[in-house]
What we know:
The protein is α+β, with helices and mostly antiparallel strands.
Amino acid sequence: MKINSAVKLGTVATFAAVLLAACGSNSSSSTASKQTLNWMENSALPSMDASTATDVVSGETINNTGEGLLRIGKNSKTYPGVAKSYKVSKDGKTYTFNLRKSKWSNGDQVTAKDFVYAWQRTVNPKTASQYAYMYAPVKNANAIINKKKAVSTLGIKAEGNYKVVVTLTKATSYFPSLAASPMFFPQNKSVVQKYGKKYATNAQDNVYNGPFKLTYWTGTSDNWSMSKNSSYWNAKNVKLKKINFKTMKDPQTALSQYQSGKLDATYLSGQQPKNYKNSKQYIERKSASTFYIELNEKKDSMMKNKKARQALSLAVNRNQFVNKVLQDGSTTAKGLVSTGLASYKGKDFNTDAAVPSATSQDLTKAKKLWKEALKETGRSSYSLTLMADDTPAGKNITEFVQSQWAKLPGLKVTNSNLPFKTRLARSQSGDFDAVVSAWGADFPDPISFLSLFTSGNSYNNGRWSSKAYDKYIAAATGKDANNTAARWSDMVNAQKTILNDQGIIPIYQQGKAQLVKSNVKGLTYFPTGANWDFSTAYISK
């Protein structure tokens, strides 16, 4: 899932000792009787359309206002959602979900047809969903996406109102996690058709079947609110009555609001984590997300040069960035796939798939390779623009990398910090030289990262391409799908391929430093997917 760099990248700031003392305060505008949670976000909510949303803020909000066949909980495990139970065929290719009786927020029944409609809408080429590729395990999905088969042939059917039968192309061990992800949530056809282009562009032109419903969001507002959904089948166990989300791009402003009781939780960055680590309210959360730099190989011959890409990577001191700038539990990236996401025979994926030279600094070698790249492309100098978000955090990462790349002979770097939506649009259209990108795993499997960089994938913004890489991914998702050892080997070789070719420049794995009021209980956080589930949270007395 795409991540706004503001969610994580640190901003260096210093705070007076009085602020340190204030951290111990439990004051909050939330009370046990009101059960209102005031929550900080680093960027505004871009979309509420489960078929087209791609970022983590949208995913988090959709995850709390909607519900799929299954739900994701602690340790990224799945448990019953709209489906009260399900069975899997012996060959692992057919899933039969038995639905409970549940309702949309407008009183309509949630039926099997709502899942069929939503899934077909997402894979329909006319919808232009960037997440359509996630449906690859479902029978005929790829053919539909490539306009070779009709949408109606997708491997999902409704048997009556309360039974969904899903047919896969092949057994897929992580399919239950997909079924619990926001892009697989049901959609109410009559509501989508009623609002047309306005559907899901604001709080009112939508309908919800999850623990909460969106009650305030204009589509462009920096703040939004969710209220308890009384129509939700498990509403009796949802304790929070309201959640107010506030976009805070400046960490000092967010900290001040936290201390004054206007926020119940705030993310920390810069010097803040170091200053507050001894507080009982301080929490470090590990995230299955990697930040990396993409280089536009389609736009310029220089970025097609492997030596140039390697030089840019070798010039960056990742240890300095995570230890001196972020200081929040983030770690240097060991590869594209985040460490701790998956293991086989007791070994973490990156133990097998790491390429140290692709994620470490060697300035002497970087300068040598850069000079060779300039000569091979017929240049004496080179200029590029590094793009990221326009937040203090986004500016911080561009300034740091700019200072590192400035050490390469004949290279001039200009920074371009843009609003999140603008940066995202330019990334997708290929209107950049180099861009800070990030991805958070949607489910606990390396393929969640690795599938992004196949040739022609919509998330492969730099247009890096490798036939060998494509072959490994095709094998992992095809002929070796049921062979655990072979599939693992395919994925290991795929990561080694993109790292050896420096198809991307991994920088760091995300850690989230946070202050949470002591009276906020029951928060469910998971490192993959949409991160937060507020349905179990409450305000204690």
